[in-house]
Write a structure and sequence with these properties.
- The longest helix has 16 residues.
- Helix content is 31%, strand content 26%.
- The protein has one domain: Rossmann fold, CATH 3.40.50.150.
- The strands form two sheets. Strands 5-4-3-6-7-8-9 form a seven-stranded mixed β-sheet.
- It is globular.
- It is an alpha/beta fold.
- The structure holds S-adenosyl-L-homocysteine (SAH).
Length: 216
């Protein structure tokens, strides 16, 4: 698995592009600069690995656009040592960004093949501390709750109630909400009385959050 000066140069350009689109948190830009995104794609797709675009990763799923990964991560306001639950592991790229910020990362994927592929791949590139689960993200991962933050990386038609119950008071859920073609990015903060305070951050497009796990 090669990561050479050419890849590093491509990453620098990607970081500049994400910065120019408005991402300010230097820790996130450093993570994008460090993580070898080309290794998350098939080797024949090197030319696409450092474009600021989503890309197919098999099983009908995509690795999110780098800008979107950075933007959602910025909204989470991760602090070192916090417990973060990601819904929709996919390629594992987003989970690595969270790990680079010093979070304790838990991530769940409903597609068995993707889960198995990513579970083997992440330790190979040095991310051994990320805990991966195969299951339905609507149900969350109650065994390790409560979380400081929950990041949903697929389009949710509604706010999953079980995830709200696995969130600490003061914690945030970042999610693209909407069942149609376009979603609204939301940040929900859980208040003392258990209700959610909502902030909106514009329109995005995600693959759908699907119910139940899939065995293929
Ligand atoms: N975070 C990923 C990209 C996510 S694409 C990355 O960095 O590459 C969205 C992912 O959510 C897909 O892999 C899809 O299979 C998964 N997904 C969809 N519905 C889900 C559910 N209910 N539970 C867990 N994962 C789900």
């Amino acid at each position: 698995m090669v990561d050479n000066y050419r890849h590093k140069g491509m990453r620098k350009r990607l970081v500049n592009e994400i910065r120019s689109k408005g991402v300010k948190d230097q820790r996130i830009l450093d993570a994008v600069n460090k993580i070898p995104r080309h290794l998350f794609l098939d080797s024949s797709f090197l030319e696409f690995a450092y474009e600021d675009k989503p890309f197919p990763i098999g099983s009908g799923q995509t690795i999110s656009q780098p800008y979107t990964v950075a933007f959602q991560t910025e909204l989470l306001e991760v602090k070192k040592g916090q417990k973060i639950l990601e819904i929709g592991t996919g390629s594992g790229y987003q989970a690595c960004v969270l790990a680079e910020l010093g979070a304790k990362v838990f991530s769940i994927e409903r597609q068995k093949k993707l889960y198995e592929k990513t579970k083997v791949f992440l330790p190979k590139i040095g991310y051994r501390q990320i805990k991966l689960f195969y299951g339905d993200g609507y149900k969350g991962v109650p065994a390790f709750a409560p979380y400081d933050g929950i990041l949903i990386t697929a389009a949710a038609p509604e706010i999953p109630e079980k995830l709200v119950s696995q969130l600490k008071t003061g914690g945030v859920i970042v999610l693209p909400l909407g069942g149609g073609d376009v979603q609204t990015m939301l940040r929900l903060t859980k208040k003392e009385d258990g209700t959610l305070q909502e902030e909106q951050f514009g329109a995005f497009r995600f693959v759908p959050l699907l119910k139940n796990k899939s065995s293929d």
